[in-house]
Amino acid sequence: MPYTPQLRELVKQVEASRAERIKKGPFRRMTMDERDEVLKNFHPDFIEASMRPLSVGVNKGDRVPHEFADLIEARSRIEGLGFDLENFAYDVDVLVVGGGGAGASAALIAQEQGADVLIVTKLRFGDANTVMAQGGIQAADKEGDSPAKHYLDVMGGGRFENVPELVSALTLDAPLALKWLEDLGAMFDKFPDGTMKSIHGGGTSRKRMHSARDYSGAEIMRTLRDEVRNRAIRVIEFCAAVELLLDEEGKVGGAVLYNMETGEYEIVRAKSVILAVGGSGRLEYQGFPTTNHYGATADGLVMGYRAGAELAFMHTMQYHPTGAAYPPQIIGLLITEKVRGLGAEPVNIDGEQFVYHLETRDVAAAAIIREIKERRKGIAVPGGMIGVWLDSPMIDLLYGAGTVARELPAMVRQFARFGVDIINEPMLVYPALHYQNGGLLIDENGLTNVQNLYAVGEVAGGIHGGNRLMGNSLLDIVVFGRRAGAHAGAAAKEIKVKKLSLNYLQAFQRELEAVGADTGGRVSPILLPRYTHRMTSA
Amino acid sequence: MESDLKMVNIYVMGKKYLVPDSLTIMHAMEYAGYQLVRGCGCRAGFCGACATVFRIHGDYDLKVGLACQTKVEPEMYLTQIPFFPAQKSEYKLGELKPTAAQIAQFYPEIYRCIGCNACTKICPQDLKVMQYIAYAQRGQIDRCADESFDCVMCGLCASRCPAQIVHFNVGILARRLYSRHLLPPAGHLQSRVAEIESGKFAVEMTELVNASKETLRKLYASREIED
Ligand SMILES: Cc1cc2nc3c(=O)[nH]c(=O)nc-3n(C[C@H](O)[C@H](O)[C@H](O)COP(=O)(O)OP(=O)(O)OC[C@H]3O[C@@H](n4cnc5c(N)ncnc54)[C@H](O)[C@@H]3O)c2cc1C
Ligand code: FES
Q1: Do residues B32 and B61 both lie within one domain?
Q2: Which listed residue (A340, A434, A483, A487) is catalytic?
Q3: Could you give phi then psi for residue A156, rounded to 5 degrees?
Q4: CA distance A364 to A203
Q5: Which one of the ligands is nearest to B26 CA?
Q6: Are residues B176 and A238, on separate chains, in Cβ contact within 8 Å?
Q7: pTM, whole model, 2 decimals?
Q8: Residues B63 and B98 in one domain
Q9: pLDDT tens-digit series, residues A477-528
Q10: What is the DSSP-derived secondary structure letter of residue A93?
Q11: Given an 8 Å threshold on Cβ–Cβ distance, is B205 in contact with A148?
Q12: Among B20, B48, B79, which residue terminates a domain?
């Protein structure tokens, strides 16, 4: 939908101040105190009323978003169904749950160890957050850079709360992971002599962001998926895991699977289970639109937590400052950081810039929310959203005509499809829920505190502390996917699964009853969001 | 807002629904009451899960689009193709040669291309699909890799091909051949891997892992940033 006449009028204010803004040069950066203040008052993580303490389980008392607590304080999908747990449809060494980048990496390496591997995934293999990553993947592989420098950047980004051993594994393995991908034939951006092209990302001290045009995650996913198929690893699509199985010794021993199409349940016995189910953006915490794929519904956190695995950093989410607020067809669509990187400034309804265009994600998001909520300088758009301008036409003025078209082809295409010309018209943006910083706490091998249960990728927590830097997530899925695959694959020979049971689940439900938790008719994991009869939002 | 919505009729697998004209096909199906299971992945034009075929009433022309990226039109008849039964060859990438003969060994049907260009016309990503197949035929692996790069593997090209070529699988083979066998490996990456494996960074890393938060903060604040 092109801009309405009212919005066109407002665009004139942005155009009117443009020359002046360019002449004045960059807006002032916030001081440390100003940053703290805007975060504390406006960042969604700091809104007390948006969270509550978990009433049961390992992390009882920890504050988490209501939307997530609702899934923990809910009934299991399989309650009362009565399965014959000895009647398994599959009996494997390693069960990988989730067909994104983390799951594919884990499966490949586990199979190399000689393990019999099964991947089950809720949508198609590769329909995942991994394919959506545009920006890139970090690794300290150039002269002048080092794993130690990378380590410091990760810790600083994570507010020094990260688990040190995990960051060490992440940064030391990063070049190994990249080399592995290169050998698998992933088409990274390179100079003719083979040198990788690399640039800065938010919070990096060295240019170590590697990319594959603006399809970085897609290229990694396509390559890994092709390799999984080459090695004939079994993959079952449209098959979700809905609950884990523990054996009588408390070790994980398999899972209950759910056929998304027929609605049938099946049992899989496995010597170990690798949860690689990704994030939870589709819970749309505090009503934020999300950049995440359709299946990002926190299933892994729910299953793992019920089985006794510990959570970490569930109180922090990453909100990307620039999700699309218009046109309505693409609300929540990620507008890559590169748009700001190239010089596009955030501007309010009066055409005034209100924040330096390169502030970190958390600060930029909070500043946009302040501009709208407190200063009331947002722009109301048809459909009920309020946004601010991101002045993309500045880019061509700064760097010459043709820059936007050349540097941001995917963005130009995405907006043009719905009638907005970002080369000549500013974009309307609002923060979008982007990434789950925390998750199931793991060790260097990706193991949770439940024996033989691994968690890798976005479902895992601890690596990124309170805030992940761009480019370290594509990295962690490969690094910890490979580590978990290697560990689980090697361990399989020694593991004996005893009698399987769901007693732990009953105990968990009893605990809920004991504390009088109101499960309000809710059932989890939810598997898919319900969007029927909804009008907008990507 | 609701009241000034312009509504249009669409037909999902032949059944009629009245939906706001501003919606994408995906939103319109949800608006109509479908809980999507197949045919929906990233919802943002990256995964290729939502390939959709449609025709406007009265027009013989069969059109296509990604459901998440295409707006509904009045009198649109549509159905999704969320799965396409395509053949994929299995190979060991390291043992292959980046030649036309190699591609032909796995996908001999590329030489049956009759030049109808249906693949290019149907591609929702506007790729020159027939062109990249021509590059593959001629052994121009680098150009095939480049031209096919934005492919989301939705399968629409293969669904239209009279020669039964599975273009997207040829594309990924070309990209992997190119990256593994034609692009030189990154020298700096190789040396860094060797350094890590020799334990060069072990001591420094152990120190950092054991450092106090205070020390880390100081190191972080004083680190120099590359221009
Ligand atoms: C728009 C966008 C842009 C991004 N850009 C970058 C970037 O530039 N750099 C970067 O480093 N990171 C980026 N990220 C983050 C990064 O892409 C993800 O965090 C990462 O790819 C997650 O990988 P994963 O394998 O853990 O999960 P996913 O890739 O999400 O895969 C999880 C899979 O598990 C499946 N699944 C879910 N539940 C179940 C279940 N119950 N049973 C079976 N299967 C299930 C899902 O369907 C999915 O296929 C971006 C993320 C988004 C959304
Ligand atoms: S849902 Fe992924 S391309 Fe449309």
Answers
A1: yes
A2: A340
A3: -60, -45
A4: 14
A5: 2
A6: no
A7: 0.97
A8: no
A9: 999 999 999 999 999 999 999 999 999 999 999 999 999 999 999 999 999 9
A10: E
A11: yes
A12: B79
